[in-house]
Every structure is written in structure tokens, then in C-alpha cells.
């Protein structure tokens, strides 16, 4: 009798057991999924912590700005660069225009009165579900100071070379300095970039460097030169170029030295360069050189005066000399807006 009841209940028990096992299996799967999810969450959190540590310990300043330019996040380096505590930065205006994708230089007054120069780069990002910018601030103060020191050294070297050249030719002592003064004034009148003007000033200081290889007796001879002697003097452009071409100036000094006796119609020397092939620095230098030379004493003649100098460049305006350069030079001198320095005037020996 008992076996009969047992037999009748087996299918139901087996079904319940199977259902229970199925539930247990699903619970196990859910548990495995939960464990995997927790591990992934922990991995994400760990990655976030590492990323935050990297951002916090960056030498560069890093900020997040909203579309209105308000600071939403700033790392530790930003505090040092901006000279303010992080708490006083958050939700305040950054104060500088943002140009995504472009490098911009900022001057920042830091603690202790130090003026720093930073290169800023910005890129679009998202912050808490809203469009934003991530900004990187890189301190380039030391790099700029090193570059300035190097430029100062180059400038001092140029001045030493200029002095050495002029020591050999007492009749034209100060010529290069006077040409430099006038060329600088012309470049400024033409509204050239500041660094371009600086390059013109320095290049003019050594434009006759090649004369260091010309015999002194030829340079100071009062009489007429032979054709061979004149050709030797004309070689000073190429000689000067060969001396300085290997020096990595941030300005086209070598080309200025080479081209300062070229003419825009191709009739100059040493290479007969013409038109747009002549760099603007050389076009300015050639006009300043001619004006100073005509207005100064030479071993073979007395000074001819400024009127004669202006007549020369205007008579050959557009033929030998760049019209814009001639006009700028003429305007400066006609309006008495240029004077050579008191310590060195044309005709001084």
C-alpha cells in the first residue's frame, strides 16, 4: 500500500526538485553577474582614482570650464599657476578667452609677485552631462627666458662683430650703426612685426661684415679704385654671407647680408636677384644703406647731404628700390620724424 502512494507522488516531487534546481542555477547566475558587475565597478573606480591621481600630480595645470567660462574643476598645479586656492576658483570665471584647438600664451601673476608665462590649450569635452572644455596650462617661463638669454647673447655677438669690422675702416666708423637706426625706423614706419624689426636692426649692424676680408688700404683709399679693386669690395656681400650662413639666427641675417646691394630690377650684386626674390629686410636695408652712405663722408668725397640722398632713392623708386620702402623713408625724413642718435651722426669720425 505504501509503495503505491510513493509511486504516485514521485512525479510531483521530481518536478519540485527540478524547479528548485532551476531557481538555484538562476540565482547562481545572478550572483556571478553581480560579482562580475561589482568587479567591473571596482575596476572603473580604481581607474578613476588612478586618473585623478595622475591629473592631481600633473606638473601642468588642468581645468574644466563650462560653456560660460566658469571653472568646474582645477587640479593642484592650477592653484600654483593662478596663485589661488582651489576652493576660490571653483564656480568662478576663468577670466581668459578660450580658443579650442589653438595654443595661446597667458601671462599670470603668481604668488610672490612672480610673472609666469603659460601656454594654454583647450579641447571640447563633457562634464556632468553638459558640454565643457578641458584646459591645459603649461608653464613655458623658463623656455622663454632661455630663448631671451640666447637672443641677448646673439645680439652681443653681433655688436662685437660690428665693432671689429668698423675698427678696420675709420672713414665709415659708425656706418653700420647708423644704417641700423634708419632701417629700424623705416621698418617701424611700415608697421612690420616687432621681431621682424628686431631682426632688421641686428642684421643691419653687420651688413658689411664681409669687408673684414677687404684690405684696409683699399677701404680707406681716397682716390678712384681700379676695376679689380672694386670687384674685390663688391665681394663683401658674398663673403659676409659665407661667414654667418651657418649661424642659426631666428632672423634672416645671412640673406640680409647677401642681398643688401641687390636691386629690384636685378641690376644689383652679387647674384642679380630681382623682385619678390628679394626679402623685405634686404629691401629696407638697401635704402637705408644708400641714404646713409650719400649723407656721410667717404674717403673719395665729402658728404653730399640728405637732399641728395632723398633724390637718389626717389629717382630710382620702383626701379632699384622698393616703392613702399622709399615712401616710408622719405616720409620719415621729410617730416623730421627721424634723427640719428646724438653720439653717432653721419660724417662723424
From TrEMBL:
UniProt keyword Cytoplasm, yes or no: no
Coiled-coil blocks: 137-167
Domain annotation PAS: ranges: 47-91
Assigned keywords, A-Z: Coiled coil
InterPro entries for this protein: HD/PDEase_dom (IPR003607), HD_domain (IPR006674), HD_GYP_dom (IPR037522), HDIG_dom (IPR006675), PAS (IPR000014), PAS-like_dom_sf (IPR035965)
SMART domains: HDc, PAS
CDD domains, sorted: HDc (cd00077), PAS (cd00130)
GO MF annotation, one: phosphoric diester hydrolase activity
One Pfam family of this chain: HD_5
Domain HD-GYP: residue ranges: 150-345
Domain of life: Bacteria
Stretches assigned to the HD domain: 172-294
Alphabetical list of NCBIfam families matching this protein: HDIG, sensory_box
Protein name, as recorded: PAS domain S-box protein
Organism: Candidatus Sedimenticola endophacoides
